[in-house]
Automatic annotation (TrEMBL):
The keyword Isomerase applies. Gene3D superfamilies: 3.40.50.1860. It comes from the Bacteria. PROSITE patterns: ASP_GLU_RACEMASE_1, ASP_GLU_RACEMASE_2. GO terms for molecular function: amino-acid racemase activity. This is Aspartate racemase.
């Protein structure tokens, strides 16, 4: 029997919809009954992640914990969260959970390592908050990946595009991001991580000559695999328990 996924979403709503659509697309289904049962907590009232990290916003940890516990109580067998920046709070949320919680950052890093190997140059487009706390640096450096990020003005350009997507796709300056991508190509990057779940929504507007790591695509595939993969399920349960014990 397939497991039920709980999706801690709303950060933002369009990214949550995009993740679930990919879950449907990746599921090998011939009828309704072949699909994965999902519980989605789409809560856009969760405070802004970057604002808190930069010292200007409300602590969202209680909101994430409450949402995750609700999904667990409703019957989710495992959780996923389609927001890169919110993974800064991942360890704190996990300590309150009795079920596994897929880590999107680690899944993306594993895919980078699998496809491009050690010593590869990897670009990162993300929110200011994700850059600030080094969410991807921490996991990628362990495998020897050379992470390439924009300068401060470039980070602001990416941030502006991300929040324009959240506002409804109006007046987005795609050229500013494509200029960054062109610069990354000159630096020899093998692939660029779309490290914000709004960015896959505009992937078709970005430089088509670059390979991208679509974080929601990777997470969606992992959700599908995990739903029926008992061996991997057991491994993640062990890892989640180890994280909890370490924190305690």
């Amino acid at each position: 029997m397939k497991k039920t996924v709980g999706i801690l979403g709303g950060m933002g709503p369009q990214a949550t919809v995009n993740l679930f659509q990919k879950v449907i697309n990746f599921t090998d289904a011939e009828c309704d009954q072949d699909h994965i049962q999902a519980l989605i907590n789409n809560n856009p009232q969760i405070p802004d992640r970057t604002e808190y990290i930069l010292g200007d916003g409300e602590d969202l940890t209680p909101h994430l914990i409450k949402g995750a516990i609700k999904l667990q109580q409703l019957g989710a067998d495992y959780l996923a969260m389609p927001c890169n920046t919110a993974h800064y709070f991942y360890d704190e949320v996990v300590r309150y959970m009795d079920i596994p919680f897929l880590n999107m950052i680690e899944e993306v890093a594993a895919e980078v390592d699998r496809k491009y190997g050690n010593d590869s140059k990897v670009g990162l487009l993300a929110t200011t908050g994700t850059y600030q706390v080094g969410i991807y640096e921490k996991v990628l450096q362990e495998s020897g990946v050379n992470l390439i990020t924009p300068d401060e003005s470039g980070k602001e350009a990416v941030y502006d595009v991300i929040y324009k997507v959240k506002e409804g796709f109006d007046d987005i300056k795609f050229q500013s991001v494509n200029n960054l991508l062109a610069e990354m190509k000159k630096q020899g990057v093998s692939v660029v991580i779309l490290g914000c779940t709004e960015l896959p929504l505009i992937k078709d507007k970005l430089d088509s000559e670059i390979d991208y790591m679509d974080c929601t695509e990777i997470l969606a595939q992992r959700i599908v695999d995990y739903a029926s993969d008992q061996e991997n399920s057991s491994q993640i349960e062990v890892e989640a328990e180890m994280v909890t014990q370490t924190i305690e």
